[in-house]
Amino acid sequence: MAFPLNLTSVLTGVTPSQLRSWRDKGLLVPEVKPKRPPLYSLRDLIALRSIARLRNEISLQKISAAFENLDVLDMAEHPSAYRFGTDGTTIFVEAPDDQGVYDILKCPGQKDMFTFEQLAEAFENFRGDKVVDLRRPAEHIEVDFGRMGGWPTIASTRIPYDTIAQVIDGEEITVDNISDYYPAVTAEAAADAVAFDAKVRSVA
Prior knowledge:
It is built from seven helices and nine strands, in the order βααβααβββαββββαα. The chain is α+β, with helices and mostly antiparallel strands.
């Protein structure tokens, strides 16, 4: 599944200008399509949330240096394959297959590794903006990695949120009668879909 720039921004808390800057600097290049228009993978989203969490406590310059050091340690997998952590001074990475934890900026400190649960849950980024819960970006919308390639859907269905948002015209089809067309979609879920779609579309 490919995620466009605006949806990627909403699901990661990283602004479009930051996404473009990080791509141009090589920090994270969209895996599906680098540009015109950029398309991100689900793995990219996980990695971006790691970077956003790190950015709360450490400079982007250090994050960039740390990611460059992954190659030195022969960690050539996609960044989403690794668990990162920080003590506010340095950055740690946990190698897969229990190969150990490495300080990738060569500084001492107390290790605080991000679990996947922490990466997925809502948090505030370094600007103080709330980043949505990746698994539940709205009350009636969920991201299931095993469903629709991780594309946000109406909770407990395979119906994409944007499908519902697009069919609601406010005249013939409304949030109140959406269940006549999509029996599994409640009025509350439809309202969430419309609001979430508006939030995504509002991203420049």
